[in-house]
Amino acid sequence: MQRTKPKTGNWALALCLIFFSFSACTTTNPAPIVYARAPGPGIVRPAPLPHRPAPLPAPAIDLPAPQYDEFTTPRVAYGMPSTECVPYARSQSGIEIYGDAVTWWRQAAGKYQRSTRPAAGSVLVLRGYQDPTRGHVSFVKSVLSERIVRVDHANWLSGGEVTLDVPVIDVSPNNDWTQVRVWNVPSMQWGARTYETEGFILPELLIPVG
What we know:
- The protein has about 210 residues and is α+β, with helices and mostly antiparallel strands.
- It is about 15% helix and about 30% strand.
C-alpha cells in the first residue's frame, strides 16, 4: 500500500489565511455599525460651548454722594397741607390706585405696568414700612444713576409733611432695587435702616378703565 504524503502547501495556505483574519480584527479603525445593511453615522463630537463673557459688576454703592445741588436740596415743604403718602403719590403720578400703600403692588397687577427698574414718573413701593403690615409709596421725580433716584413723598417722617427731592439709593447686592435706603432730611444723611421694595409702578395702563 502506498502512503499519501501530507499536502504541506494546503496547510501553509490555511495558516496564512487564519493569521490574516486575526490581524484584521486588531485594526485601530472601528468597524462601521450597519443599520439595515447601510453604514451608520460616524462619531459626532459635541460642539464647543459658545463663549459667554463674564457678567459686568454692579455699579458701586457710593453712600457719601447723594447728588443734589442748590436747586434740588432735599427739604420739607412746610407750606404744603398735611397729607398721607397714598393721596400724594396718586396726585403726582396720575396712577389711580386707592387703599393702603401695602396693597398698591397687588392692585397694580394686570392694570398698570410694573417694573424692577426705576423710571421717572413711576411710583416706588416699599413694603414693611415701620412694621410688616404697612407700606409706603413715593413718586419718582428723576433717575440720577444706576443706584440713585430722587423722590417726592408725604408722611415719611410721620407728621403728614411733604418732603421733596429726597435721594433714595439701591443697596441690594445685585443692583436689582430690592433693598433701598432713604435720605434723612432732618439730619441730612442717609437713613440707617434698609427697606425692602416691591418695585416700581409705571403710569402706563395695561387695560382701559371703564
